[in-house]
Amino acid sequence: MVSDVSVEYTRGTPVVREASLSVARREVVALLGPSGCGKSTLLRAIAGLEPLAAGTVSWDGENLVGVPPHRRGFGLVFQDGQLFVHKSVAENIAYGLRVQRMPRHERQARVSELLELVGLAGYGSRSVQELSGGERQRVSLARALAPKPRLLLLDEPLSALDRELRDRLADDLAELLRSTHTTAMLVTHDEGEAKTIADRVVRMRAGRLES
Fold first, then answer.
1. Which of 206, 168, 183, 210 is nearest to 29 (CA)?
2. What superfamily would CATH give domain 1-73+150-211?
3. What are the residue boundaries of the ABC transporter domain, all occurrences included (predicted)?
4. Mean predicted confidence (pLDDT) in 95-118
5. Cα 6 from Cα 56, distance rounded (Å)
6. Dihedral through CA 41, CA 148, CA 27, CA 135, nearest 10?
7. Which of 13, 44, 105, 119 lies deepest, with the highest CB count within 10 Å?
8. Taking residues 81-85, what's their average pLDDT?
9. CA gyration radius, the chain
């Protein structure tokens, strides 16, 4: 999926160096490393949010270089969730389904299904501003999963939460990804979190993936 990828912020100074990595269907891979090692940059490059200085990103043999992020079929969850604060919980979750032009009754059924999956049944009409940090991240996960992405990319999704809540949500996230048969890549600097959530842990240091 990722072949000899390099990313540069300043020309000639690579942040990611010749990274190669594949993810099998239904596999959850954690990209583990210290802050500043390039792991989030690599995730953003896979998503199409960062240009490549070299290498390719592909899926099922299709070269995705030049394909815009919204056409890659990937879901994204960031540390801050990036929810629409003026929309309800249900409207946030339904966003990608509206973009896909899913019929209203199917959209409503899918939103209800996801609210149940993330433990927020009955929360659909609430404003996201009424929710706790953990609840907002659950909504972010539900929104990303709603269109059934072929790959879910999670960039430090639990790092803004307190330790007790992080541990609980890590267990819940691991169960959610497996119950939905989701192929995913998780970026984290927390080894315990990586081992709880992922099937496989890949370490990164100074812009390079370690074997």
1. 183
2. P-loop containing nucleotide triphosphate hydrolases (3.40.50.300)
3. 1-211
4. 93
5. 9
6. 70
7. 44
8. 85
9. 17
pLDDT at 177: 94
* d(C-alpha 31, C-alpha 24), whole Å: 15
Helix (H, G, I), strand (E, B) or coil at 95: helix
Identify whether the C-beta of residue 166 lies closer than 8 Å to the C-beta of residue 197: no
The set of residues, in sequence order, having a beta carbon less than 8 Å from that of 116 and lying 6+ positions away, is: none
Name the token pair of 131. Answer: 């929710």
Query: What angle (nearest 5°) sits at the alpha carbon of residue 75, between those of residues 70 and 81?
Result: 105
Q: Are 202 and 11 in contact (CB under 8 A)?
A: no
Summarize the confidence of residues 64-75 as an average pLDDT.
94
For residues 32 and 21, give the distance between their C-alpha atoms in angstroms, rounded to a whole number. Answer: 13
If one counts every other C-beta atom within 10 angstroms of the C-beta of residue 137, the result is 28
Contact 157, 79 (CB under 8 A): yes
d(CA 137, CA 131): 10
Q: Structural domain boundaries of the chain?
A: 1-73+150-211, 85-147
Cα 78 from Cα 95, distance rounded (Å): 16
62 — phi, psi (to 5°)? Answer: -90, 125
